[in-house]
Amino acid sequence: TLTDEGSKKGVFLDLAYVDWHPELLKGLDLIAGKMKNPFIQVADGFPIDGDFNPEGIGAKFHAGDELEFLANAGYQWLYERSAGDDTKLYAGQLALNYKISDDMHVMIGGTYYAFQNVEGYDVLDYKGANSGYGNSTVKGSVSGDTTNKAYGTEYTPIEGFAEFGFTVGLPVTLFASYLSNGEADEDNTGYIGGVRIGKASDPKTFELGYDYRELQKDAFLGALVDSDSWGGGTDGKGHRFSAKYQILKNWQAG
Question: Residue 72 and which of 8, 114, 165, 204 are 20 to 30 A apart at CA?
Fold first, then answer.
């Protein structure tokens, strides 16, 4: 977007990463930079927004064919502070994907998210609204006449997820996920369950989806959660309907 008279323009990078596949260990990807989310999410934007591209290092590994073993790990910088400790995320994930036939599979897995330096630190406020995005907050640092909000608890949620896919003329996928943050004494769980029918990929294909989701106040770090559901963040629940149609190879309506 062209702005004020002759001013220099910002350049924004959506992705900028290195992905290395070492020949010594087949099935391993080592990733560094600003990358796509390296973790499996059976549902769109749950628990992390699909638009969020983390920065740090990641590793993805898969082995096997009919019974596939999947392992993912990540070390991400979420907020850098010159006068304090950075907020980071360490996370690990394991899953098994059993391919029953060419058009049927079952996947189960779990993820451990260990956020570091959250409780007592100012909220991650990407909109500049001094918002906790649903999370419990306390008084934080003071900037001029404003008292910033700080997180009231730590976050180390554990997630379990499952997916069942099959074909009956069209591909159908049933999915569910449940997570719990043991650091919070209450309002610390979340879940989702839903179905996708079809797959919008080739021209003239379509996809329909439905899910019901709930994220209690301190189930997950609100700044990373889907920004569209109930206005963004945690502390919400509701139904979600979606429809997509692939017009051309690189042109989709949704």
Answer: 165
